[in-house]
Each structure stands twice: as structure tokens, then as C-alpha cells.
Design a protein that fits this description.
Number of strands: 9
InterPro entries: Peptidase_A22B_SPP, Preselin/SPP
Radius of gyration: 22 Å
Keywords: Hydrolase, Membrane, Transmembrane, Transmembrane helix
Number of helices: 14
GO molecular function: aspartic endopeptidase activity, intramembrane cleaving
Strand content: 5-15%
Mean pLDDT: 81
Protein name: Signal peptide peptidase-like 3
Order of helices and strands: HHHEHEEHHEHHHHEEHHHHEEE
Shape: globular
GO biological process, one term: signal peptide processing
Low-confidence stretches: 1-6, 51-66, 370-381
Distance between the termini: 54 Å
């Protein structure tokens, strides 16, 4: 009997959908964190030549969204779970009425986010053609874009159009990956204090809406919002134009707010919300930036520990994700993944920082150089 149980857990963890969920979420966090470091380097370069770039900044509206990154303040970290709860309730009560609006907003965000994911690929494709990746062309009030940015935006828009027409889960996952990477790269946690406040609040938010919302709203609010499908925008437009053939052939679409992978068992699938990737990912991005900052400030590089804060938190994330997967199999019910991810990522960092003597510095604005804040472009959310 015990041997059978052991084999059950073994085969459960080797299920293709679960393995893909774990592996891809890890890759998204690692890649998003490295893209964030790339943005830091780009910001440093632009700050050194700010006079030459002034015209581009003033002439951009749409492209200005991608010109800097956003930092979460202490107040925003405290109130973000409340705002997320309000958004969840709006989608729970008014999804049928506002589903076209939700689908349209999601399509626009997904287009911009996936273009950011495709940008390095487009830059590589245009490099042999002799195109200057720094040269920008003006598109009027939309702003100024490089050829690679225009190319990635075009491919992204085409992908979103195909997703709307087909509703295929692979395309939805691709757009969700773009959203994950762009949010991890552009949204910043400035200190360990803000990180702790944000992740603790979101842990409480996740636990409440998964475990206790059914007692108040007679339904699991988190699960219902995550799994409901929106009417296809094509069908909405076709209905207005009395085009019944298009209206009947347009499938419903699942919004890319999650990663979904079909299981080997028919009718089952593995699902992980983007918040369970992005929020711990922001913490891992923060400690990766701190590892790089500490390495730059180190007087004796040979004395540095080979185990960095990023390594520690990444191992914790993997353990937390596996634990959440096992818990969902044990209880045969949806689990608040942050209940497992937050302790396994945050606590090791706090303990490691205390042992190394970095806790005080990491707790309050650690990126200080010669009495001043490390120069970069911060924009409040």
C-alpha cells in the first residue's frame, strides 16, 4: 500500500502539465529578472547621455510606457491587495456585462507585453540587415519607435488576432508569458520592507478568496473568476453588424491571466495564476539586483559567497511550487499558491540577510551610492 502511494506521488509530479507549469514559471522569473538588469543598464546609458535623448522622451506618448520602470511604494504595497480584491469582485459580479471591455483591455495589454518579449528576437533578426537598433522613426502622437520595436509590435498584434479568432490555449499561454516577463522586468520592489508588506498582504488576499469567499458569496470567487470565459470580441462586433455566420463560429476565449496546460488525464489540466509567478518574481528580481549591486560594491570579490540571495530564493520558489502542487493533489481542490510560495521565498531571504548582516541595509532602500540613491528612472505606479 505504501509503495503504491509513493508511486502515485511520483507519477503525479511527472505529469506533463505539472512539469511544464513548474519549469516554465521558473524560466519566466529568471528571464524576467535578467531583462530587468538589462533595463537597469539601458537606464544608466540613457542617464549618461540624457541631453541627447531629451527630444525622444518629449516626442513619445505610447512609447513612453516602455521608457522607464515603475516602483511600488510602501503605501501602494499595503493597499494593492485591497485594490486587487475590488477588481476581483467587479469581475465576479459584472463579468457578463463587462466581458467585452475586459477582453479588449486584455488584448491591448497582451499586445504590448508580448511585443516586449519578442523584442530581442526582432533585434537579432534585423541586425544582419544592417538596421540600427537605436534609430527611431516617428509615428505622430503614438511616439517614436525603433524598427525592431515596430516589428515586434506587429508580430504581437498578429498573434493576438489569431488568439481572438481561435481561442487556442497555446496562444493564451504565450500572451500570459509575455505579461509575466514584462511585469517582472518593469515593476520594481525598492526594499525588503516593501517586499514583505506586499507579499504578506497578497498571501492573506489569496488565502481569503480561495478558502473563505465561498462562505460569503456562495461560490469560490477566485476559482470562478480564473476559469470563466469571455465572449469573443469578433462575435460582439458581428452581433452589432448582424453577421450571424461570424457570430456563431467565434469561440469563447479564456483571458490570459493564467498558465494552463492540459494533463495526460483526459479532462484535467494544470493551472497557475500569473500573480503566483509575477509577485514572487518581483522579489526574486529585487534580490538579483541586490546581488549585482553588492558585487559591484565588494572590495574583495574572491571572498564573496557562491550562494547568492537569488539562488536561495529561487530554490525556495521551486520548493514552494512543488509543495503547492502536492497540496492540490492531496486535497483535490484549488490551493492559494502564495500560501506556500511566500514563506518559502521570503523567509530564507530574511534569514540569510540576518546571518550575512545585510538585513538592515536591505530593509530600507538598499541601492545607495555615496550617500545618494543609485540613479535610475523610477516612475510611481
Amino acid at each position: 500500500m505504501e509503495q503504491a502511494i509513493e508511486h502515485h506521488w511520483f507519477y503525479m509530479l511527472l505529469d506533463t502539465s505539472r512539469m511544464l507549469t513548474i519549469i516554465i514559471s521558473i524560466l519566466l522569473i529568471v528571464y524576467g529578472s535578467f531583462r530587468a538588469l538589462g533595463l537597469d543598464s539601458a537606464c544608466k546609458t540613457e542617464n549618461e547621455s540624457s541631453e541627447g535623448q531629451e527630444q525622444d522622451k518629449n516626442g513619445s506618448l505610447l512609447s513612453g510606457v516602455m521608457d522607464g520602470f515603475q516602483t511600488i511604494t510602501t503605501a501602494q504595497a499595503i493597499f494593492l491587495p485591497i485594490g486587487a480584491s475590488c477588481s476581483l469582485l467587479i469581475m465576479f459580479f459584472f463579468f457578463d456585462t463587462l466581458q467585452f471591455f475586459f477582453a479588449l483591455c486584455t488584448a491591448v495589454l497582451a499586445t504590448v507585453a508580448f511585443s516586449f518579449l519578442l523584442l530581442p528576437v526582432c533585434q537579432g533578426l534585423l541586425k544582419p540587415c544592417g538596421k540600427n537598433n537605436n534609430h527611431k522613426v516617428s509615428l505622430g502622437f503614438c511616439g517614436r519607435f525603433t524598427f525592431a520595436e515596430l516589428m515586434s509590435l506587429l508580430f504581437s498584434a498578429l498573434l493576438v488576432m489569431v488568439w481572438i479568432l481561435t481561442g487556442h490555449w497555446i496562444l493564451m499561454d504565450a500572451l500570459a508569458m509575455g505579461l509575466c516577463v514584462s511585469m517582472i522586468a518593469y515593476i520594481r520592489l525598492p526594499s525588503l520592507k516593501v517586499s514583505t508588506l506586499l507579499l504578506t498582504g497578497l498571501l492573506i488576499y489569496d488565502v481569503f478568496w480561495v478558502f473563505f469567499s465561498a462562505y460569503i458569496f456562495k461560490a469560490n470567487v477566485m476559482v470562478k473568476v480564473a476559469t470563466q470565459q469571455a465572449g469573443n470580441p469578433v462575435a460582439f462586433v458581428a452581433n452589432k453588424l448582424n453577421l450571424n455566420s461570424f457570430m456563431n463560429s467565434s469561440p469563447q476565449i479564456s483571458l490570459p491571466g493564467k498558465l494552463v496546460f492540459p494533463s495526460q488525464e483526459r479532462g484535467r489540466f494544470s493551472m497557475l495564476g500569473l500573480g503566483d509567478i509575477v509577485m514572487p518574481g518581483l522579489l526574486l528580481c529585487f534580490v538579483m539586483r541586490y546581488d549585482k549591486y553588492k558585487k559591484m560594491q565588494a572590495q574583495a570579490p574572491e571572498t564573496e559567497s557562491k550562494i547568492t540571495y537569488f539562488h536561495c530564493s529561487l530554490i525556495g520558489y521551486i520548493v514552494g511550487l512543488v509543495t503547492a502542487t502536492v497540496a492540490s493533489e492531496v486535497y483535490k481542490a484549488a490551493q492559494p499558491a502564495l500560501l506556500y510560495l511566500v514563506p518559502f521565498t521570503l523567509l530564507p531571504i530574511l534569514i540569510m540577510a540576518y546571518i550575512k548582516g545585510d538585513l538592515r541595509k536591505m530593509w530600507q532602500d538598499p541601492f545607495i551610492v555615496n550617500g545618494g540613491i543609485l540613479k535610475a528612472k523610477f516612475m510611481d505606479v
